[in-house]
Q: What sequence folds into this?
């Protein structure tokens, strides 16, 4: 089996001539963290591996977690060799840098079934084609364990490479990048609705609520993933507030919400932007708030 390190290097050199750009000495300051949701990672660049020094950082995650474009650029999908094939993506930026996504998903279910192959909707975002331009934070794929990561903890092996193909340590750039609440859809999919499911109310005012999220659902992308973080949303007088009881739903208002109780929050329909993806306080507004009790 070819290692992902060898495969990535060889394919990258083949693709350098396909995309052009102006070489830059560094990575842009404002970037999107390449996985949406909760992850762990360390500076393992250069660590010894059977195939040689590690040429990226492993971002430990869970199967099917959304992967997004680190910066704007053009994409090239690739399937490496091996028993199950390594599902990969190359993101070529205008600054001449290339960002490599390795071990993308090849499983259909929640377990390691290897039944999906390297396909759109499994490994890569639906509708994503070679040469497509993607915006920073746009959905490009899904975390998995394809290739020589088969059977171990799903993770994204993320590389940063210069125009020459030389790998540089991504760790500092990952630390500086922005964590997002949700991925940006492909162009043409229109506005989005975000639902924060299984959240906990941690603060409220007359016009805002602050929740700690648990799972995030995104329509029309059909995404449902873990993303534990605080989000403050605007609540208008016309917001539908309901309490779920044993006999169904009853209409109430924000004053009835209790700090510490579980809630489900659905936003108004909105156009996805870089600002809404970062979700600073009160940028997103609530359409429906369901109070679920302790």
A:
């Amino acid at each position: 089996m070819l290692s992902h390190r060898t495969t990535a290097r060889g394919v990258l050199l083949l693709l350098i001539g396909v995309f052009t750009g102006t070489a830059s000495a560094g990575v842009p300051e404002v970037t999107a963290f390449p996985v949406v949701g909760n992850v762990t990672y360390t500076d393992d660049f250069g660590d010894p591996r059977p195939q040689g020094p590690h040429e990226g950082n492993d971002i430990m995650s869970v199967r099917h977690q959304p992967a997004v474009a680190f910066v704007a650029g053009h994409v090239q999908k690739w399937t490496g060799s091996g028993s199950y094939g390594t599902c990969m993506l190359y993101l070529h930026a205008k600054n001449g840098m290339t960002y490599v996504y390795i071990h993308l998903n090849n499983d259909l279910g929640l377990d390691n079934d290897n039944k999906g192959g390297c396909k759109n909707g499994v490994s890569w975002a639906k509708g994503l084609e070679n040469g497509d331009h993607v915006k920073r934070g746009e959905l490009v794929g899904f975390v998995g364990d394809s290739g020589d990561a088969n059977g171990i903890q799903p993770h994204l092996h993320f590389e940063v490479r210069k125009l020459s193909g030389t790998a540089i340590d991504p760790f500092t750039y990952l630390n500086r990048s922005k964590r997002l609440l949700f991925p940006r859809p492909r162009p043409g999919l229109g506005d989005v609705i975000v639902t924060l499911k299984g959240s906990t109310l941690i603060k409220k005012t007359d016009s805002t609520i602050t929740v700690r999220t648990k799972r995030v659902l995104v329509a029309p992308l059909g995404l449902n993933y873990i993303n534990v973080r605080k989000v403050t949303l605007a609540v208008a007088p016309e917001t539908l507030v309901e309490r779920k009881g044993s006999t169904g739903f009853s209409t109430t208002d924000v004053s009835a919400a209790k700090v510490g109780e579980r809630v489900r929050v659905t936003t108004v329909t909105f156009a996805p932007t870089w600002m809404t993806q970062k979700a600073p306080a009160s940028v997103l507004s609530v359409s429906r708030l369901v109070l679920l009790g302790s």
